[in-house]
Amino acid sequence: MKQITIKIPDNKYSFFLELVKNLGLTVKEETLEGSQEVLNGLEQGFMEVKLIQEGKTKGTPLKEFLDEL
Predict the structure, then answer these.
(1) Which 8-state DSSP code applies to residue 10?
(2) pTM
(3) CA–centroid distance for 52 within its chain
(4) pLDDT tens digits, residue range 12-68?
(5) 16 CB-near residues (< 8 Å, 6+ apart)
(6) What is the 8-class DSSP label of residue 36?
(7) Helices (DSSP H) in the chain: which residue ranges?
């Protein structure tokens, strides 16, 4: 058995699923939710860096950050 990964535009997704099921193939649905969480975390981090650079908030000294690890 072989496996492929296909990225489907949202507006074609239901049509594609119906087509695949009519062909008798199996579908394992996956989402990019985990990726979205990572992107949200990075965006939040960049916003915090910007605030620190603008002097609107205070950052954590490197030594203190490393000691927490």
Answers:
(1) G
(2) 0.45
(3) 25
(4) 989 998 999 899 988 887 766 667 788 888 999 999 999 999 999 888 888 888 898
(5) 6, 8
(6) H
(7) 13-22, 33-53, 62-68
